[in-house]
Write a structure and sequence with these properties.
Elements: E1 10-14, E2 18-24, E3 33-38, E4 41-48, E5 67-74, E6 85-89, E7 92-98
Antiparallel strand pairs: 1-2, 2-7, 3-4, 4-5, 6-7
Length: 113
């Protein structure tokens, strides 16, 4: 399989404090997933191992995708790259991308003379 054969589906969510990426990875072991953040890009990569045929058995249909995958996402400005975290439970990877808490500039009224 090539990298283009399958990729996890994701949802990207935004709250006031952070961005969240939820990636579906059923059948992928946590140890087979690697996350990196570099130069404003988050990359998820890993591999789903194919089940081995047991001796004396054969597959009649194989619909699930196996092999390596990779997805990359450009991070919005203001994400604290050094504070990115992730959790993996029940085949769902949740990546937390905290926003910097810099105060937003208040509008200043300019008087016209």
């Amino acid at each position: 399989m090539t990298l283009a054969d399958w990729a996890p589906r994701v949802d990207i969510q935004e709250t006031q404090e952070e961005f969240l990426i939820h990636a579906e990875l059923p059948g992928v072991k946590k140890d087979d997933v690697k996350l990196t953040v570099k130069d404003g890009t988050l990359t998820i990569q890993g591999e789903r191992q194919q089940a081995k045929e047991e001796r004396g058995s054969k597959f009649h249909r194989t619909e699930r995708m196996y092999g390596s995958f990779m997805r990359s996402f450009s991070l919005p400005e203001g994400v604290k790259e050094d504070k990115v975290g992730a959790a993996y439970k029940d085949g769902m990877l949740t990546i937390h991308l905290p926003k910097s808490q810099e105060p937003k500039a208040k509008p200043v009224e300019i008087k016209i003379q």
